[in-house]
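Proteins fold reproducibly. Next comes an illustrative record:
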Amino acid sequence: MGFFKNGTEVIAGQLDAMADVMQDWTKGQKNLDGKSKMLLARIGFEVRERGLVAEQIHIYEDRDKRRSITAEVASKWGGGIPSKNYLRALEKATGMALRLQKDARAVLTRDPVSITAYEDTCFDAISGVATKAKEGAAISGDNFSLFLLENGRYNICLSDGMGSGPAASKESDMVVDLMEKFMEAGFPTDTAIRMMNSAMVLKGDDESYSTMDYATVDLYTGNVELIKIGAAASFLKHKEEVTCLSSSSLPAGVYMQQLAKPQEAKMCHGDFLVMVTDGVLEYLHVKNPEEKLAEMISEINTDNAGGMARALLEHVLLFTGGHAMDDMTIIVTGIWEK
């Protein structure tokens, strides 16, 4: 009976989530074509000057006042013309730094293709990862995903499956996979988390749970949103100063109405966000492991995210005598102005 009750609650929760999404979509993007006739004409001219043809050109503005341009683009005389020529035409016409959609065709031919150009971000993000599986385990129970969405938000998802080995890896992989798919489908972060958690509850395994650490870095502003579901503390390094970001909540799949309050922070040029699974902290054998890890992070002087992740793992293993009593994963993400 409890399973059916849970199933009904999950379906109701999914419907609520879809309602939120529909409401979000109705706010949508604002079409600026009517106010941008001169700009549309300049775009057409600059595109033709480079041997290209652009039709059905539209200019949009999202809720954050960031613009995008869509068009059907083709080579005027045949042959292959690099799509970067189209990007240069747009940038000259608009006076803005732009970027093409991630899957844009590299070479344009006489066959028209739909291309979207977005206002470019102010920052680049690079992540480095260091991992070590629990001693005796064939595979780590930790999983992670790093991906950039077209809206300029860089996403880091880190999950720690309960226990270790293949079973734990399967659990955490499901969490990471669901979150990435929901986010790439355009769901807001809180809705994606609700849907992921509902799916984990509906799976019905009472003995198997996963933590989730989810960070979104806005590469236009440097604003960070961090959501923790049963996850270990994270750390933000600004020069030599390190701030600990922690939260308390149940792991994913424990409770249907799982709610996690997001934490907000700000990253600047050269700052690093350090995310870890609990195996990194639990066996430091000190009174305050978060304080000790923050101290280790502050002492690592490098502008290389991968180098920092590896150095931090080496520091931690010095405290554990080189032994990994649990799966350990460290993800370091840095941002730099373009």
The first helix runs from residue 2 to 27. Confidence is low (pLDDT under 50) at residues 1-8. The CA atoms of residues 128 and 307 lie 7 Å apart.
